[in-house]
Write a structure and sequence with these properties.
Length: 285
Protein backbone atom coordinates (compact mmCIF):
# COMPACT_ATOMS: atom_id res chain seq x y z
CA UNK A 1 0.00 0.00 0.00
CA UNK A 2 1.34 3.42 -0.98
CA UNK A 3 0.66 6.34 1.34
CA UNK A 4 1.09 10.03 0.50
CA UNK A 5 1.30 12.50 3.37
CA UNK A 6 0.83 16.23 2.80
CA UNK A 7 1.91 18.59 5.60
CA UNK A 8 5.02 17.80 7.65
CA UNK A 9 4.58 20.20 10.55
CA UNK A 10 4.67 19.67 14.31
CA UNK A 11 2.06 16.91 14.06
CA UNK A 12 2.91 15.47 10.66
CA UNK A 13 6.51 14.67 11.55
CA UNK A 14 5.55 12.24 14.29
CA UNK A 15 2.69 10.72 12.30
CA UNK A 16 4.86 10.04 9.27
CA UNK A 17 7.60 8.60 11.48
CA UNK A 18 5.14 6.08 12.92
CA UNK A 19 3.90 5.08 9.47
CA UNK A 20 7.50 4.46 8.40
CA UNK A 21 8.15 2.39 11.53
CA UNK A 22 5.14 0.27 10.61
CA UNK A 23 6.75 -0.51 7.27
CA UNK A 24 4.69 1.68 4.94
CA UNK A 25 6.15 3.45 1.93
CA UNK A 26 5.38 7.13 2.47
CA UNK A 27 5.64 9.85 -0.17
CA UNK A 28 5.59 13.34 1.33
CA UNK A 29 5.17 16.98 0.41
CA UNK A 30 5.25 20.13 2.50
CA UNK A 31 5.73 23.78 1.63
CA UNK A 32 9.01 23.82 3.54
CA UNK A 33 11.24 20.85 2.75
CA UNK A 34 13.43 21.41 5.81
CA UNK A 35 10.51 20.47 8.07
CA UNK A 36 10.61 16.99 6.58
CA UNK A 37 14.34 16.46 7.05
CA UNK A 38 13.91 14.02 9.93
CA UNK A 39 11.40 11.78 8.20
CA UNK A 40 13.29 11.97 4.90
CA UNK A 41 16.34 10.65 6.74
CA UNK A 42 14.10 7.88 8.12
CA UNK A 43 12.97 6.82 4.65
CA UNK A 44 10.12 9.08 3.55
CA UNK A 45 10.27 10.02 -0.13
CA UNK A 46 10.21 13.76 -0.81
CA UNK A 47 8.42 15.26 -3.81
CA UNK A 48 8.51 18.83 -5.09
CA UNK A 49 4.77 18.96 -5.78
CA UNK A 50 1.54 17.58 -4.39
CA UNK A 51 0.78 16.07 -7.80
CA UNK A 52 3.95 13.97 -7.78
CA UNK A 53 3.47 12.94 -4.16
CA UNK A 54 -0.10 11.68 -4.54
CA UNK A 55 -0.35 10.29 -8.08
CA UNK A 56 0.35 6.65 -7.13
CA UNK A 57 -1.02 6.70 -3.57
CA UNK A 58 -3.73 4.38 -2.30
CA UNK A 59 -4.25 6.58 0.75
CA UNK A 60 -3.60 10.33 0.84
CA UNK A 61 -3.37 11.94 4.27
CA UNK A 62 -3.38 15.69 4.83
CA UNK A 63 -2.73 17.70 7.98
CA UNK A 64 -2.15 21.36 7.22
CA UNK A 65 -2.71 24.63 9.04
CA UNK A 66 -5.98 26.33 8.21
CA UNK A 67 -9.18 25.68 6.22
CA UNK A 68 -7.79 27.87 3.40
CA UNK A 69 -4.79 25.51 3.24
CA UNK A 70 -7.12 22.52 3.09
CA UNK A 71 -9.01 24.18 0.22
CA UNK A 72 -5.74 24.73 -1.62
CA UNK A 73 -4.30 21.23 -1.28
CA UNK A 74 -7.55 19.60 -2.36
CA UNK A 75 -9.12 21.93 -4.91
CA UNK A 76 -6.29 23.86 -6.57
CA UNK A 77 -5.62 22.58 -10.09
CA UNK A 78 -2.78 20.06 -10.04
CA UNK A 79 -3.35 19.15 -6.40
CA UNK A 80 -5.15 16.24 -4.75
CA UNK A 81 -8.59 15.99 -6.37
CA UNK A 82 -7.22 16.39 -9.88
CA UNK A 83 -4.12 14.22 -9.34
CA UNK A 84 -5.15 11.25 -7.20
CA UNK A 85 -5.69 7.90 -8.89
CA UNK A 86 -9.17 6.43 -9.11
CA UNK A 87 -10.59 5.03 -5.85
CA UNK A 88 -7.81 6.49 -3.68
CA UNK A 89 -8.89 7.26 -0.12
CA UNK A 90 -8.42 10.88 0.99
CA UNK A 91 -8.09 11.43 4.74
CA UNK A 92 -7.99 15.03 5.96
CA UNK A 93 -6.69 15.09 9.54
CA UNK A 94 -6.56 18.87 9.79
CA UNK A 95 -8.94 20.47 12.29
CA UNK A 96 -11.13 22.27 9.80
CA UNK A 97 -14.71 23.26 8.98
CA UNK A 98 -17.38 20.54 8.98
CA UNK A 99 -18.84 22.20 5.89
CA UNK A 100 -15.49 21.94 4.12
CA UNK A 101 -15.30 18.25 5.07
CA UNK A 102 -18.67 17.71 3.40
CA UNK A 103 -17.50 19.65 0.34
CA UNK A 104 -14.41 17.45 0.01
CA UNK A 105 -16.52 14.30 0.44
CA UNK A 106 -18.91 15.32 -2.36
CA UNK A 107 -16.08 16.42 -4.67
CA UNK A 108 -14.24 13.15 -4.03
CA UNK A 109 -17.28 11.18 -5.16
CA UNK A 110 -17.42 13.23 -8.36
CA UNK A 111 -13.75 12.36 -9.03
CA UNK A 112 -14.31 8.63 -8.28
CA UNK A 113 -12.43 8.97 -5.00
CA UNK A 114 -13.31 8.35 -1.36
CA UNK A 115 -12.93 10.75 1.56
CA UNK A 116 -12.84 10.83 5.36
CA UNK A 117 -12.50 13.76 7.72
CA UNK A 118 -10.40 12.50 10.64
CA UNK A 119 -9.09 15.28 12.89
CA UNK A 120 -6.87 14.31 15.80
CA UNK A 121 -6.26 15.23 19.43
CA UNK A 122 -3.18 14.60 21.53
CA UNK A 123 -0.68 17.22 20.42
CA UNK A 124 2.88 16.61 19.30
CA UNK A 125 3.41 14.09 22.12
CA UNK A 126 0.53 11.97 20.89
CA UNK A 127 1.79 12.26 17.30
CA UNK A 128 5.29 11.11 18.29
CA UNK A 129 4.06 8.25 20.47
CA UNK A 130 1.32 7.06 18.11
CA UNK A 131 -1.33 7.62 20.78
CA UNK A 132 -3.52 10.22 19.09
CA UNK A 133 -7.29 10.21 19.42
CA UNK A 134 -8.77 10.14 15.92
CA UNK A 135 -12.38 11.15 15.17
CA UNK A 136 -13.58 10.14 11.71
CA UNK A 137 -16.52 11.08 9.52
CA UNK A 138 -17.49 9.64 6.14
CA UNK A 139 -18.63 6.23 4.90
CA UNK A 140 -18.24 3.44 7.44
CA UNK A 141 -16.70 1.05 4.91
CA UNK A 142 -13.99 3.63 4.14
CA UNK A 143 -13.30 4.06 7.84
CA UNK A 144 -12.99 0.30 8.23
CA UNK A 145 -10.57 0.06 5.30
CA UNK A 146 -8.43 2.85 6.75
CA UNK A 147 -8.43 1.55 10.32
CA UNK A 148 -5.14 -0.34 10.13
CA UNK A 149 -3.27 2.71 8.84
CA UNK A 150 -4.96 5.01 11.37
CA UNK A 151 -3.99 2.60 14.15
CA UNK A 152 -0.31 3.27 13.44
CA UNK A 153 -0.85 6.92 14.31
CA UNK A 154 -3.48 6.74 17.02
CA UNK A 155 -4.60 4.68 19.98
CA UNK A 156 -8.22 5.79 20.32
CA UNK A 157 -9.89 5.67 16.90
CA UNK A 158 -13.59 6.36 16.54
CA UNK A 159 -16.13 6.43 13.73
CA UNK A 160 -18.46 9.37 14.36
CA UNK A 161 -20.87 9.24 11.42
CA UNK A 162 -21.35 10.84 8.03
CA UNK A 163 -18.99 13.35 6.39
CA UNK A 164 -18.27 16.29 8.70
CA UNK A 165 -19.00 14.30 11.87
CA UNK A 166 -15.32 13.91 12.71
CA UNK A 167 -14.90 17.68 12.54
CA UNK A 168 -17.96 18.27 14.71
CA UNK A 169 -16.53 15.91 17.34
CA UNK A 170 -13.22 17.80 17.19
CA UNK A 171 -15.13 21.06 17.78
CA UNK A 172 -16.52 19.54 21.00
CA UNK A 173 -12.99 18.45 21.94
CA UNK A 174 -11.56 21.95 21.47
CA UNK A 175 -14.43 23.52 23.42
CA UNK A 176 -13.61 21.22 26.35
CA UNK A 177 -9.88 21.98 26.11
CA UNK A 178 -10.49 25.72 26.18
CA UNK A 179 -11.90 25.51 29.69
CA UNK A 180 -9.45 22.85 30.90
CA UNK A 181 -6.20 24.59 29.91
CA UNK A 182 -7.40 27.91 31.32
CA UNK A 183 -8.50 26.37 34.61
CA UNK A 184 -5.04 24.80 35.02
CA UNK A 185 -3.44 28.21 34.56
CA UNK A 186 -5.82 29.74 37.09
CA UNK A 187 -5.23 26.97 39.65
CA UNK A 188 -1.45 27.33 39.44
CA UNK A 189 -1.67 31.12 39.57
CA UNK A 190 -3.77 30.84 42.73
CA UNK A 191 -1.31 28.41 44.30
CA UNK A 192 1.54 30.87 43.71
CA UNK A 193 -0.43 33.78 45.17
CA UNK A 194 -1.25 31.66 48.21
CA UNK A 195 2.52 31.15 48.63
CA UNK A 196 2.31 27.39 48.18
CA UNK A 197 4.81 25.16 46.42
CA UNK A 198 3.08 25.20 43.02
CA UNK A 199 4.86 22.05 41.81
CA UNK A 200 3.69 20.16 44.88
CA UNK A 201 0.16 21.50 44.43
CA UNK A 202 0.20 20.32 40.83
CA UNK A 203 1.23 16.81 41.91
CA UNK A 204 -1.48 16.68 44.57
CA UNK A 205 -4.41 17.93 42.50
CA UNK A 206 -3.41 15.96 39.39
CA UNK A 207 -4.21 12.77 41.28
CA UNK A 208 -7.70 13.85 42.33
CA UNK A 209 -10.97 14.82 40.68
CA UNK A 210 -9.33 17.86 39.08
CA UNK A 211 -6.79 15.75 37.19
CA UNK A 212 -6.72 16.04 33.40
CA UNK A 213 -4.46 15.67 30.38
CA UNK A 214 -4.01 19.42 30.33
CA UNK A 215 -2.94 19.42 33.97
CA UNK A 216 -0.41 16.63 33.53
CA UNK A 217 0.80 17.68 30.08
CA UNK A 218 0.76 21.47 30.20
CA UNK A 219 0.84 22.15 33.94
CA UNK A 220 4.59 21.36 34.33
CA UNK A 221 5.35 23.44 31.22
CA UNK A 222 3.53 26.40 32.74
CA UNK A 223 5.58 26.13 35.92
CA UNK A 224 8.92 25.76 34.12
CA UNK A 225 8.14 28.55 31.63
CA UNK A 226 8.47 26.07 28.77
CA UNK A 227 6.37 27.73 26.09
CA UNK A 228 7.57 25.64 23.12
CA UNK A 229 4.60 24.72 20.95
CA UNK A 230 3.20 21.23 21.18
CA UNK A 231 0.17 23.00 19.77
CA UNK A 232 0.40 26.58 18.54
CA UNK A 233 -1.73 29.36 19.99
CA UNK A 234 -2.51 30.53 16.44
CA UNK A 235 -3.92 27.11 15.56
CA UNK A 236 -5.95 26.91 18.76
CA UNK A 237 -7.44 30.32 17.97
CA UNK A 238 -8.41 28.97 14.55
CA UNK A 239 -10.05 25.93 16.13
CA UNK A 240 -11.98 27.96 18.70
CA UNK A 241 -13.22 30.35 16.02
CA UNK A 242 -14.47 27.39 13.99
CA UNK A 243 -16.24 25.98 17.05
CA UNK A 244 -17.81 29.36 17.84
CA UNK A 245 -19.02 29.74 14.25
CA UNK A 246 -20.66 26.31 14.39
CA UNK A 247 -22.24 27.13 17.77
CA UNK A 248 -23.50 30.49 16.50
CA UNK A 249 -25.14 28.77 13.52
CA UNK A 250 -27.09 26.70 16.04
CA UNK A 251 -27.89 29.68 18.29
CA UNK A 252 -25.85 28.14 21.10
CA UNK A 253 -24.15 30.52 23.51
CA UNK A 254 -20.77 29.23 24.77
CA UNK A 255 -19.54 31.85 27.26
CA UNK A 256 -16.46 29.94 28.45
CA UNK A 257 -15.27 29.35 24.89
CA UNK A 258 -15.83 33.02 24.04
CA UNK A 259 -13.87 34.18 27.08
CA UNK A 260 -10.94 31.86 26.45
CA UNK A 261 -10.85 32.76 22.75
CA UNK A 262 -10.61 36.43 23.73
CA UNK A 263 -7.72 35.67 26.12
CA UNK A 264 -5.77 33.83 23.43
CA UNK A 265 -6.44 36.55 20.89
CA UNK A 266 -4.89 39.04 23.32
CA UNK A 267 -1.78 36.85 23.57
CA UNK A 268 -1.59 36.74 19.77
CA UNK A 269 -1.93 40.52 19.56
CA UNK A 270 1.05 40.71 21.93
CA UNK A 271 3.20 38.64 19.57
CA UNK A 272 2.76 35.22 21.22
CA UNK A 273 0.81 33.37 18.52
CA UNK A 274 3.69 30.96 17.85
CA UNK A 275 3.94 29.86 21.49
CA UNK A 276 2.27 26.74 22.83
CA UNK A 277 -1.22 26.84 24.31
CA UNK A 278 0.26 26.57 27.83
CA UNK A 279 1.25 30.23 27.42
CA UNK A 280 -2.26 31.09 28.64
CA UNK A 281 -0.52 31.27 32.04
CA UNK A 282 1.02 34.56 30.91
CA UNK A 283 -2.38 36.20 31.19
CA UNK A 284 -2.07 35.76 34.95
CA UNK A 285 1.53 36.86 35.45
Amino acid sequence: MNIAFIGIGVMGQGMVANLLKAGYKVDIYSRTKSKGAGVIAAGAIWHDSIKEAVKDADIIITIVGYPKDVEEVYFKEGNILSSAKKNALLIDMTTSSPNLAEKIYKAAKEHHLRALDAPVSGGDTGAKNGTLTIMAGGDKEDFDSAYEVLSKMGKNIYYMGSAGSGQHCKMANQIAISGCVTSVAEALSYAKKAELDAEHVLTVISGGAAGSWQMKGNGPKMLSDDMAPGFYIKHFIKDMKLAKEEADKRQLDLPVLSMVLNMYEQLAENGMEDLGTQAIIKNYE
